[in-house]
Specification:
CATH architecture of the largest domain in chain A: 3-Layer(aba) Sandwich
CATH class of the largest domain in chain A: Alpha Beta
Largest sheet of chain A: 5 strands, parallel
Number of strands of chain A: 7
Number of domains of chain A: 2
Radius of gyration of chain A: 28 Å
Shape of chain A: elongated
Structural class of chain A: alpha/beta
Strand order of the largest sheet of chain A: 4-5-3-6-7
Oligomer: homodimer
């Protein structure tokens, strides 16, 4: 993603004015030897300088000075099922898009249907999360901001995702199994309790808490808006910097 | 990836000249009521118009007219082991990078070491190639050109990769098993013949030829340079168009 720095605009202003003023002086000298007939000269300027301005612009397209990329990053939401990852990630993503940033949104629910053979055993989940981490890193490397939300219950595959990325920001949805179970409108916890689902984080397998997440969301005591504001504030202060 | 069209530069030239000429006329009128003292006015112009030019530039940063993206695409090389995919894909990729295009290079050899659990059974290869196709499509969607080279012996997963992408260009390395076996400096075919490798395309499993590839490379009768030129020519004519 590209934007132009003020330095670039300053240099363009200097280079253009140099060309334009020399042109004016030469024109005035040719016509009178003095300084006169500004209207005539003004009219000549309209045509002569407009052409020069055009070629000046085309030349500047080839100069990279002062063109910069906004740093990209991977914003990775992790937490128990029904801890509110998806809603929060969607909200943050919308705010970044409103800021005209180039963002890709990745959710487990988007990726799994493409690869229906992916199971829920720890090995399969680790593999699924690692592949997602690889995808995030490839997008990030190419200047795309990635907002990803995966339960990603195992530390091993989250560490893999972190190591692949240049700028990994882990958001941990800090809450309890009890609170998630109460929030769960889809009945996933009930199915896990009844044995219909196996390997369900928080029920029959452990969700491994992140060791040093960049951001911890106190899910049970913050509204969605407050949580989103906290994250966007962090990003603007620490990551999304413009000269 | 962004570039600016000539229309954008023309409109910038018109808008700037409007501002600058009105400024000149007003200055001349204030100073003399006539047309005089071009040097004085010229000097004033240097300062006044340079500031105006600067703010004019900053304003134009907010206008999207005439800013365009170069279309991205997935260039997918498929063919038997040792058919020359990697060398040709590398050469084409280098030429695109020289043209200042944003390119990501994906090769099976880059991806497999990250996921050592990926095997060589038809199911595993199909899964591996589908995941690669998904990755290509995500990059392409975000404006990145992808140059991918995978044996990808099964039609099913190549079709999957094609369907995920907006602009899929399949390059088929057309050659024979015998010719590949002669070119094979790494001894992969020998290992497949001796039974050390199973599921080896061209030896114990069939390589399924593409049905309608966009580009067919006659590997045994073209040099690397000729093949690369053929592909780059196709891309410039059909895909990489600028206004």
């Amino acid at each position: 993603m590209q934007y132009e720095t003020k330095n670039r605009s300053i240099l363009k202003a200097i280079s253009w004015r140099t060309v334009a003023t020399i042109t004016t002086a030469v024109l005035v000298f040719i016509f009178t030897g003095q300084f006169a007939l500004a209207l005539t000269i003004g009219l000549l300027e309209v045509f002569a300088k407009m052409g020069l301005y055009f070629f000046h612009e085309r030349l500047w397209q080839k100069i990279s000075f002062g063109k910069k990329e906004i740093p990209s990053f991977v914003l990775w939401f992790t937490g128990l099922p029904a801890s509110g990852k998806k809603a929060l990630a969607d909200t943050v993503c919308q705010q970044l898009v409103q800021d005209k940033l180039k963002v890709e949104r990745l959710d487990s629910l988007d990726v799994r249907p493409l690869f229906p053979e992916t199971g829920f055993s720890p090995e399969e989940v680790n593999r699924h999360v690692k592949r997602a981490g690889h995808l995030c890193a490839m997008l990030e490397k190419n200047g795309i901001i990635v907002v990803a939300s995966f339960v990603s219950p195992y530390r091993q595959s989250r560490v893999f995702a972190r190591e692949r990325a240049a700028n990994f920001i882990e958001v941990y949805m800090n809450t309890t199994v009890t609170a998630c179970e109460q929030r769960d409108t889809k009945g996933h916890y009930a199915k896990a309790r009844s044995g219909e689902y196996q390997n369900f984080p928080g029920v029959d397998i452990e969700y491994e808490e992140p060791v040093n997440p960049e951001i911890v969301i106190d899910v049970d005591n913050l509204t969605l808006e407050e949580s989103a504001e906290l994250i966007v504030h962090y990003l603007k202060k620490k990551v999304i910097k413009r000269d």
